[in-house]
């Protein structure tokens, strides 16, 4: 019985993972279809290039990608399904602001699903504009590569701007210092193998170093092109809503309901992205999600 119980749990977990993957794949295919309306050639369609980048990073199969492009550009069947980009706004427990971007072919259905997800967990769907002023729509470029150094990145960003390129509004840098230290410790324990094993481990750790560079909404294409020309390894780029102010929750119950609400919103088929200005202690969030 114990073995059967464990296998049942594994099957349930796999079903959840498969369902999540299905939602993500559906979402990505819709983004590609919407972007392909402006042209099926990624070389001349930055929105399509962005959608394809996200889709390939998520593992969307090539045949799904090709069907989505054909559908959006009117070359394939089902081109009558015209999805619209719609933004919804509302509040979660504790006054947390929530922005939801959706791709939908039925606004009434999507609004009803969102309203239910909000109200079921103590939030409420509001009017467009009720929380939008609390967020800024920006372009974000992500860089990942071995031996990524912050000073070198800053010099490169300055060079781009001095050459007449897009201005950088801000950036975040994540060094791989902890991983490098662990690699060094492992190398010392390895004795004679320290040179090869320790070096390989350190190189692997350095790959975790990354940076996110933020620019204005309109400068995203120019910035990622400029960073590539400067020799940086651009791993992804996107338009992202960034909260200008945060709403901190410190009590367990409001935070628990808020996290459940955000999960419920993210699980909806029509939802493209969910952004919030929620701020909370990471240890508390991990405890509630455990």
Overall description:
The N terminus is likely disordered. The strands form 3 sheets. The chain has a 4-stranded antiparallel sheet with strand order 3-1-2-9. Strands 5-6-4-7 form a 4-stranded antiparallel sheet. Strands 8-10 form a two-stranded parallel sheet. A hairpin with a 5-residue loop joins strand 1 and strand 2. The relative contact order is 0.14. It is globular and about 50 Å long. It is an alpha+beta fold. The protein has 10 helices and 10 strands.
In short:
The chain is α+β, with helices and mostly antiparallel strands and 290 residues long. It contains 10 helices and 10 strands.
Q: Work out the helix count.
A: 10
* Gyration radius, rounded: 22 Å
Chain-averaged pLDDT? 82
* Relative strand content: 15-25%
Strand order across the largest sheet: 3-1-2-9
Q: How many strands?
A: 10
Distance between the termini: 25 Å
Low-confidence stretches: 1-17, 179-206
Order of helices and strands: HHHEEHEEHEHHEHEEHEEH
**Rough outline:** globular
